[in-house]
Amino acid sequence: MGKVTGGELVVRTLMKANVKNIFGLHGAHLEAIFQSCLDHHIPITDTRHEVAAGHAAEGYARATRTLGVAMVTAGPGFTNVITSIANAYLDRTPVLFITGSSGLGDAETNTLQSGLDQVAVATPITKWAHRITVTQQIPRLVAQAIRMATSAPMGPVLLDIPADVLGAQIEEDSAPIPERVLVDSPAAPQARAIDEAIQLLKSAARPVIMVGVGAYFSDAGEELQSFAEATGIPVFSDFQAHGLLASSHPLYGGTYHKMADLSSEGQRSDLVLALGVRFGLFTLGMSDLVVPLAAKIIHVETDPKEIGRLRQVAVGIVADPRETLRALNARAKSEKWPDRSRWQQAVRNAKVERCKRLQADLNRAAPPIHPLQAVSAIVDNIAEDTIVIGDGAEAYHWMNEVIRQNHPGSYITHGFLGSVGFGLGLSLGAQVAHPKRPVLLLVGDGAIGFTIAEFDTMVRHKLPIVAVVMNNHSWAASQHFQEIVSGKERLSGTELRDANYHEVAAAFGCHAQRVTEIKDLGPAIKAAFASGKPACINVSIDVVPLPPELHLLMARH
Q: What is the pTM of this model?
């Protein structure tokens, strides 16, 4: 047997886990991994900033329901990616972060990018963080990290590997690669809990199903549709579960916030089947606006900490959402379900009334463009299989009103961290994951500035992402918050210039266009995709309107 480096062991173990793409930014500490990726023809999408590499790995994981991998160098490479680690942690995204560090032999020598305990910093925002100190242990510990990241509840892990551990050459047979890295054994529900759930669901007059991140990552779409159709129960989704039930389906009610529209007498839900849902920000905490306080809750979650966190539950099921739906479907076939046509119609009526309330905004003729007009034009002019990324504190709330969510993982947007500025990175990962599908990024003018140099990454790697900048010359969410809390005459730190973001993109080699009238936006989107190049469309929109969803959030918080 020959000799292998630690970097080679990392790459061989990743290959056993079916890793086909890595995102990162080179640093000398990681050279052994870069060289092994070259030998094994594993592409590394190298970004202009480490945080974009981390967000790209998140985007890849969320678009594929598989592991994302990001690697960054020591010191500032690691500190730059912390926001992505935290974002993945709060949103339960399975990402392996590999960080380089100074060699073990350089301890306490004040060498380059040393003196920082990267594992200690990462521990509170990962499922697991560990420093590998023995080259022979790399395959075992990389495999362990991957299993932890991809096991429910999913989340990020971090492996810190010193440069001399990665670069060391050892005998190949002293560090065998595990034959099986990934595990697939989702937890099944107890029969007694299924019995209790079925009885509650049958007796409820106005039940709803809420699906969240756990339902998305368990790939529960087919089972969800079968159960909703068998029982006649309407479905609402959160930011990661959009598309599990197609928005065109008559039983789809919309995002969680739209449950607040069911406010007239006799039209509030009396029971919620929550599948992989984390109660909190997107359910408006413990308020009565989304989930009525009187409603009984059946909560299905892989993480027992989430069950009963904010609401008492009638039935708590610590199990995989898809496995639970399979058990419910097996019972549903033999049960007699009540006629819920009136309740279904009430949900549909609420959607119609919401559209009516927004119609005046859509019909506005004069500039500036209303943001609802802009997102509507986007949705009307993209292909059915387009992956849409939403970034910006207000922009994605407008998109939530009109997005057609017909495939899971096709609308990727903000979660619990509210990490404005992650959109270019997420888009990179989504496009690498699905090179044959169109990818469109909806991004605010504030958010685009965080990592605007990633237009260069798109050009270098031939990733034809179309970014549509909602340009209202403002940190609009902050402006609106100040207007509500402090008054319109007390604005501070919210104004931006009317910058030519499209010209910045053009300087990197992108297709670029400025749009000031709504009639030009649809053709501009089609032209951008037809160019076959990365693109930036800079759209002038009105800063005054406040998204209805955001109004609810601001009123609550």
A: 0.96
